[in-house]
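If you are new to this repository, start here. Below is one unmodified record pulled from the training split, so you can see the exact layout before writing a loader.
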Amino acid sequence: MSAPPYVQHGLSAARANTPAARADAAYDYIKTRLLEGDYAAGQKLSVVELTRELACSRVPVMEAVKRLASAGFVHIVPQVGCRVVTPQPAEVRDFFALFAAAEGTVTAFAAARRTTAEVEEFKQLCAYIDGVAAKAGKPGDRDPTYRRLNLLFHAFIHRLARSPVTTAIATTMWDRSDFYIKLAFGSLYFSRPVRAAHEAIRAALIAGDAQAAQAAVAAHLNAVGDGVAAAMEKLAEG
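And here is the target side for that same chain:
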C-alpha cells in the first residue's frame, strides 16, 4: 500500500499529525493539482474526493481551500461548493504586465551582478535543462517537467540577482503565472517561441547585458500574457 499523499509530499508521519501540518500538506497537494493536474477553469472541486485522496478529515482540506481562495485560485460559493476560477482576459494581461516588470528587473540585476564562475554554472544548468526537456512529453501530454525546469531556470537567475526583497516579490507571482498558463493551454510547454525567448535571456545574462536581459524577459512574459488572455477569451465564448 502506498504512503498517504501527505507523506509522499515530504511530511513525516509524526509532523503530519499536527493540524497545521495537515492543512499545509493539503494546500500543497491541491495547489500542485491546480498547477499540474487536470482541473479546468470553472471545474468544481470535491472536498469529499480530496479528503479521500489525502487520507484526512475535512478540516485540513477546507483550510487549504480557504487559502487557495485567498490566493485567487478557487472561488468558494456558500452552500454550493468550490470551483476553479475563470480569469478575466483583461486581468490576465494586467497581471503579466506586472509580472514582466518584476521578473525583468530581477533578471537585469542578475545580468549585471553575475560572476564569471556563475556564468559557467549557468551554462551547465542550461545544458541540463535542454537535455531533460528534449526527453519530456509533447504538448498534449501535459508533462509537468517543463514547469519544473522553468522554475529551476528562473530560481537560478534569482540567486544571481542578489536582491532578496525584489526576488521575493517576483517569486510570489510564479504560481499565478503557471496557473493561468495551465488553464489556458493545459500545461506549460517549451514551444518554439518559448525556446527562442529563453535563448535570448540566456545570451543576455551570459553577456552581462542587463538592458537586453530585462527587455527579453519583458517581451516574453507580455507575449505569454497576450496568448493566455486570447485563450481565455475563446473559453468565454464557449
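Two things worth knowing about this chain: The longest strand covers residues 74-77. The two ends are 42 Å apart (CA to CA).
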